[in-house]
Structures are given as C-alpha cells and as structure tokens.
C-alpha cells in the first residue's frame, strides 16, 4: 500500500535554534502588524519591505482576515478540527477563538518551527489543553507534524480536518538539498486527510497584479532571498495545482479581498476592495471529495 510518508523527510529533523542575527519570517510578520515579539533586525527588515511596498502591512492584515473568514465558513459547515501550519506568532483574535465562536468544542493544533513563534504558541495552547495544542515542527516534516498532532490528544485523524496555510507556502521552495519539493509535501498532506476535510491557502504572486504593484512585490521577494526564508512567487496555475483534486469552494482561487468579504468584519479587506489584485495574494478554500465521488459540504 502506498505510504504518504514514503520518500519524505523523516520525523525528528532538528528545528532551528533561536537566531537573533538574521530576520525571521514569523517575527517580520509580527512587525508588520506592530506586534511585540520581534527584534531590531526584524523591524529593520520590515521597514525595508515597507519602503519597497508601502501596502505590505495592509496586505498582511488582509491575509489574516481572509484566514479567519475561511475558518469561520468551514466551522459553520461542521468542520471542527483545524491544523494551522506555519501559524506564526499569536495575535488576537486567535484562530481558535474565531472557530470556537462558531463551535465551542472546535479543536486547533498550531504548528511552527521558529523558536519564538513555537514558544508563544505553546503558551497559548496551555490555556486549554483539551482543545488546543502546539507542535514545534517545520511544516515540511509531514510525518512529524501529523504524528505530533495526533499524539497531542486533541486531534482525531479519522474526522475532517482543515489544513490552514496562511501566507506560508511561498516560503517553501520547489526543491532544496534538505527537503523535497512543495508539491510532494502538499500531496502527502492531502493524502492523509479524511474525506470532507479542507485546505485553506493563501499564496503571494505577481501573476495578474497591477502594473505599478508588480515591481514592488518582486522587490519584496528579492529582499526575502537574503533571509533564511526566501520567498517564491508562483503563478496562478502553480498555486491552483497545490489543491490537487480537492474541489475549490465558491468563486475558486481568487484575490483574498474578494473571498466572502461579508462573512465577518474585515477592515483591511475593505481598504483593498477597490483593487483586490493589489493584495498580491491568491486565496482559496477547497474540500476533499467524499468516498462517493462528491465533495462534502
């Protein structure tokens, strides 16, 4: 029988130590939203990005708003388990607060490899060990993430699970020396999910963005190539392929400000409504087909 773990990196790969000499994607994102869990090197990098692309903080907020709208929609359809991959440094409202507002018994497992993010997520999860857990893993360690999520005791792999990748996948290269390509990693996650599960994703792109914005997002990608988490801008077709045979809900893969903007209050999304392609972020929510060949709704 095919194993989704075959050929993938084994569990137990070392997570990186705390590095205060290099900017971190998680801490940079925290700086974009004026958080407190970042250092001078992260703030300097965030300032350089903002100089290249003045709307970056607005886009970061719009990304987060999309994720919360997406998980709200899924919780309303009965999905009660969420695996937040590359969750980053926690910020209010927490993802579990959003889904538990719909279903008080909803479960969330947060995953991140960056030490500051992982430590803060662990503190957050300690508030409710029955329904929350934190896993300190690289999201590319599919087997390690999956096994740790199950071992946490809050995660039932036989029930539908929503995988959440909010502005994470563009930091995973197609190939490198230590890990296999992004497509294979996504395929392994999709294989593990039971029918009725979901995949939530946002991804940066320069495909179809406004002419004046395209050089800005490319300049940002160049800046990130100087960090330990270089960014990869993928085309719409490449992002769509990451969903595999999952069925995209609603309008499909669209600019994040366009996805269900009426679902919950989303101030940054409203600011981008007049030019949604200026967000440079494609987003989608897809469901795994049920065993009878249809998609559960």
Overview of the molecule:
Strands 1, 2, 3, 4, 5, 6, 7 and 8 form an 8-stranded mixed β-sheet that branches. With 297 residues, this protein is α/β, with parallel strands linked by helices. Helix content is 34%, strand content 13%. It has helices at residues 25-32, 40-52, 56-76, 95-100, 115-125, 142-151, 182-192, 214-224, 236-241, 267-271, and strands spanning 81-85, 107-112, 132-136, 162-165, 198-204, 247-248, 254-255, 281-287. The model is unreliable at 292-297 (pLDDT under 50). The chain is built from 10 helices and 8 strands. It starts with 24 loop residues before the first helix and ends in a 10-residue tail after the last strand. Helix 1 (25-32) packs across helix 2 (40-52) and helix 2 (40-52) runs antiparallel to helix 8.
Write the layout of secondary structure elements.
Blueprint: H1 25-32, H2 40-52, H3 56-76, E1 81-85, H4 95-100, E2 107-112, H5 115-125, E3 132-136, H6 142-151, E4 162-165, H7 182-192, E5 198-204, H8 214-224, H9 236-241, E6 247-248, E7 254-255, H10 267-271, E8 281-287
Parallel strand pairs: 1-2, 1-4, 2-3, 4-5
Antiparallel strand pairs: 5-8, 6-8, 7-8
Helix pairs in contact: 1-2, 2-8
């Amino acid at each position: 029988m095919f194993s989704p773990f075959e050929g993938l990196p084994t569990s137990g790969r070392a997570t990186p130590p705390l590095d205060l000499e290099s900017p971190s994607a998680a801490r940079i994102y925290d700086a974009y939203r004026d958080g407190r869990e970042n250092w001078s090197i992260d703030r300097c990098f965030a300032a350089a990005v903002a100089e290249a692309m003045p709307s970056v903080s607005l886009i970061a907020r719009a990304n987060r708003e999309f994720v919360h709208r997406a998980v709200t929609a899924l919780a309303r359809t009965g999905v009660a388990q969420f695996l937040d991959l590359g969750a980053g440094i926690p910020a209010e409202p927490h993802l579990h607060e959003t889904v538990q507002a719909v279903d008080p018994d909803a479960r969330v497992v947060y995953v991140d490899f960056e030490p500051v993010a992982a430590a803060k997520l662990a503190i957050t999860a300690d508030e409710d060990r029955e329904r929350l857990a934190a896993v300190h893993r690289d999201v590319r360690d599919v087997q390690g993430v999956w096994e740790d999520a199950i071992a946490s005791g809050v995660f039932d792999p036989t029930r539908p699970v929503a995988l959440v990748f909010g502005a994470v996948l563009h930091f995973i290269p197609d190939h490198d020396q230590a890990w296999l390509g992004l497509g294979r990693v996504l395929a392994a996650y999709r294989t593990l999910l039971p029918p009725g599960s979901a995949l939530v994703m946002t991804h940066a792109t320069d495909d179809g963005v406004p002419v004046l914005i395209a050089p800005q997002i490319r300049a940002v990608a160049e800046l990130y190539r100087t960090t330990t988490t270089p960014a990869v801008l993928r085309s719409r077709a490449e992002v769509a392929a990451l969903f595999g045979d999952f069925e995209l809900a609603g309008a499909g893969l669209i600019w994040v400000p366009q996805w269900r903007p009426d679902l919950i209050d989303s101030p940054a999304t409203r600011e981008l409504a007049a030019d949604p392609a200026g967000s440079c972020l494609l987003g989608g929510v897809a469901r795994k087909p049920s065993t009878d060949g249809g998609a559960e709704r």
